[in-house]
Structure formats: C-alpha cells, structure tokens
Design brief:
Layout (H helix, E strand, L loop, with lengths): L6 H4 L24 H8 L7 E3 L20 E6 L21 E5 L7 E3 L9 E2 L3 E2 L13 H6 L1 E9 H4 L10 E2 L1 H11 L8 E5 L4 H6 L11 E2 L3 H10 L3 E4 L17 H8 L4 E4 L4 H10 L3 E6 L9 E3 L3 E3 L1
Parallel strand pairs: 7-9, 8-10, 9-11, 11-12
Antiparallel strand pairs: 1-15, 2-3, 4-12, 4-14, 5-6, 7-13, 13-15
Bound molecules: acetylphosphate.
Length: 318
Amino acid sequence: MTEALDLTELLKDAPSNWGKWGADDEVGSLNYLTAEEVLRGVAHIKRGELFTLQRLIGDPNGDPVWPGRTPAERTMVFDESSWDEGGDGPSFPGGLHYADDKMSSFLQGSTQYDALGHVWFDNLLWNGYDSRTTIGGLSKASVAPIAERGVAGRAILLDMARFRGKDSLDARETYTHEDLEACADAQGITIEKRDIIIIRTNHLQQFFEKGDAFYEDFCESGLVYSPELVQWFQDKEVPNLVTDTIANEVTHDPNNGAALVLHNALMRNLGIAFTEICDLEKLAADCAEDGVYSFFYVAAPLKISEATGSPVNPVVIK
Ligand code: UVW
C-alpha cells in the first residue's frame, strides 16, 4: 500500500446517527441504554461478584499509552518528611499531619472513556459539530455529558485471545464482526441488540514483555474496518465498545492504510462510546471458569469540563 485512502472517500457511504437524538446530542449511542436496558443488565447479576476493569495508574511495570503520550506522574506534596526539621508541613492545632499528592496526566493516558468529539475528519465531529468547537477545549461532545449521564447495561465479554487459543493477540492481528459472532458461538452466548461489547485480546501483555520494542512500528491488534462491520454495529445498536487495547481497533488498517478508521466510522459517525486500556484478565479467567460471559456493567468517567476523555474504573457485576 503506497498511500492511505482518505477517510472522506473511505466512509462516504457509511451509516451515520447524526441528528438521531437531536441537534444538541453529546452522548450518541449511549441513548440506547434506556432504563429498560439498565434493568436487563441488572437481571444478569447472579453471584454479586465484582470485577473492576481499570488498569493500575503508576504500575511499577509501566503504563501503556498511545505513542506521543506519557504515563501519569504522581508526586507527593506532603508526607511525614514534610514535618521533619526544616520541612514545609503546615502546622494545625492538635498536631495533625497528613499526606497529599497530585497527578499530572493525559486524560487518555490510562483506562479511559473517549469523548465523542475526540476524533474527526472533514472539519466535522460527532453529530455534525464543527471541529473548531474543539479549540481550547471541547465545547461540544466533551466527556462531561457522558460523565453526567453514566453508563449501565448488559455487557458481554468476547474473549478473542482464548477463542484463538493464544495468550495474547499479536501486533497487527485483526478480527471482524464475523469473528466476534464465532467467538460468541464458541462461548455459548448470543450477542443481543444493545449489548455493551467487551473484547479481550490481552495484546498489552506484549507491552509488559517487550518494553520499548512494543512501540517499534506500532500497530495494535484489533477490529478492522469493513462496511459490513460498521453496519453490524449499527444494526446491533451497540452503545459502548470496551477493549483492553490502547485504541480499540487495529491502528493502521491493512486494507487501506488509514489510521483509526473505526474511531471515525463507529465513534464519530455512529456515536458509539469507546472505553480503552481496560484490564480484563480477572474477569476473563472467571468467565472461562464458570462459562458465564454476560453480566451487568456500570461506569462513569469523571466530570471534567470540555475534556477529550477521562480516566474511569468500570465495574462488572456477575
Ligand atoms: C487516539 O485516538 C489517538 O487515541 P485513543 O486511543 O485514546 O482513542
């Protein structure tokens, strides 16, 4: 492939949900998660067992991030040494000491929800908002409306790594909606309309095994674009796509050379919320053991004004 196909050309006939939930909508396909859908999810709670899906921020083994981003940096402001001789610990009546810290981080530098306005092409983002609305902060389709709304419903885990008999999917390794259906069949479940789809690749194990070499010729494993795949997501009314990779899709499409096609076809055009960099290992091990791959999922990113994304710790209850 010499030159990548333009997203304008590639997605010219692609389905769109712009306007479907009104001219002011900022949460897109999360609108599918009505109260009825929340209760459909709750009905899957059988054992009362919780699984949290956030990766540790400040993992001593490293934090995987998109190239060009840096992991969060947490620094202590006050600790016991602040009250040593010459320290700057404030003095309070009664002798109070306390610990304080602060963090500097990319809002998309850990397990995160993307705002719907996070990506665009042709100067237009989700719902047709002008891309100039991103300047200085997302005045449209930031993460804050998703945070305000919250996310809850029935979710299913599709364990693509186990399905393919591998510890982890390789760089560039792709899968399609047909593979998702085949994986669901093998797991004995049906992908239902409005399910939150969680896909395990365990691809980031390679970040921990390879170190810096993970970023050489960076191309993650993931879903690969086709018009049929986009239509499948549209027909299934998928509200939220959750994965354990940095960007939820193969980084460079092997068929057309374009980068992050599905960020545009699914998030920008259909309004599907993306949750990235999850840790699905404990959940997947449990599902493999009890054979139950459907459960209740609940998450809410942080309410950060005009932000492009936000850290989150989604919770699954089985
Ligand atoms: C980009 O889209 C660049 O990053 P993310 O993986 O955070 O969506």
